[in-house]
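S1.2 Input.
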Amino acid sequence: MEDKRDNFIESQEIFDRLRKIILKLHSFDQLLKKMIPWISQENEILLQNVKTYREEILYGEKKAEDILIDIICKDNICYLNNAKMEFIDRKSLWQMINEILLNEDYYVEYDTDQPTIFDCGANIGLAVYYFKTLYPKAKIICFEPWDKAYAILIKNIKDNGWTDVTVYPYALSNINCHERLFIPEENSLGASLTERCYEYVKDDSKIEKKIVEIRRLSEFIHESIDFLKLDIEGAEKKVLYEIESMLPKVRFIFCEYHYGNLVKDNSLADIVSLLEKNNFIYEIGKSHTYQKRTKKRPMLNVGKVASMVIWAQNSNYK
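S1.3 Output.
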């Protein structure tokens, strides 16, 4: 009887290991399939070695996303289809690839081949690459206050020959001033004027502080905007209310909403009310990273740091 029980336990363990391997292989195959349109033609030889990569999944400890990053990156350069981009860290790069290239959070069909796009929170410019791939003639206005990301953004624009792209080194809010920008060491995408990073980073030495210039977005809106992307880590409500009188000029909005106990005056209800008041129809969902983190037992995350996504369209836009 004891032997049968031991055999059953051993069989169950083997089954569990096989199941995990199959899931990892499936995850890798699905990611690779979605990523192929964005992979540089120079990587064709690498793509021919898919068997080797699958063996790494079978016998190694690497995650599917880590292997995929190995395929498209060398050192701190990411080689994409028709572009090469310097990046800051792999974790942030993978998050951006998921949101921008794989999930295509910024996909919009315009009635012009020269859309005007505001990229607020541009980071290293992966969104610029995405916009320019779909609409090479797009006019893009970028805002990036963190000097390290700003320098790389400028370099990536120059190295890839993207034209009609303007970059400003400003954070955005509802007043012109100077304030501290908080940049968590292990989450460079989380740079924020709020102190929300202290809710998940307990070591102050791992948070860089920079004094940055803050400007009002309304000062830069001189024409209609086809797409307004707001990923500004907690200042969403302030910026949207500051440009309320100009919202009739905006056709589509992508807004990543950030919640936290240390984020002040950034009510999601207020943002939604503002959009409804100004004739925007919208959908709301979890951001990719937050969705992955809260997929299981989501009620346990209520009241903690959160990021949601709002896709909005001006129903009265002409």
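S1.4 Remarks. Residues 2-35 form the longest helix (34 residues).
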